[in-house]
Amino acid sequence: MLAACQGFVLAENIPGIDEFFKINPPEEAEVIVWDSLKELLDILTPLAPNLNDEAQRAFREQMGKRARKRVLTEHTYAHRLEKILQWAEEL
């Protein structure tokens, strides 16, 4: 997953995504979500001509770092295996 690689993530706002990643407020978000193609274009349009802008680059890098930290602290295979074993014990 891109978040594990410290990448800047734009994701469709599917039900439950906010249970895995912080999406608001933007200055604390780990991923940016969109609900429609128009909203995605509204997000991408100002980014495209300014990809090399230092402030935007820093914003994307910080978001990527936050996303990676979340993945490493909550979403590794070890975390999933632990959850599966907990469910098995409850059976």
TrEMBL record:
Keyword Transferase carried by entry: yes
The name on file for this protein is Putative glycosyltransferase
The molecular function terms in GO held by this entry are:
transferase activity
Question: Keyword annotations for this protein?
Answer: Transferase
> Which Pfam families does the record associate with it?
Glyco_trans_1_2
Q: Which residues form the Spore protein YkvP/CgeB glycosyl transferase-like domain?
A: 2-86
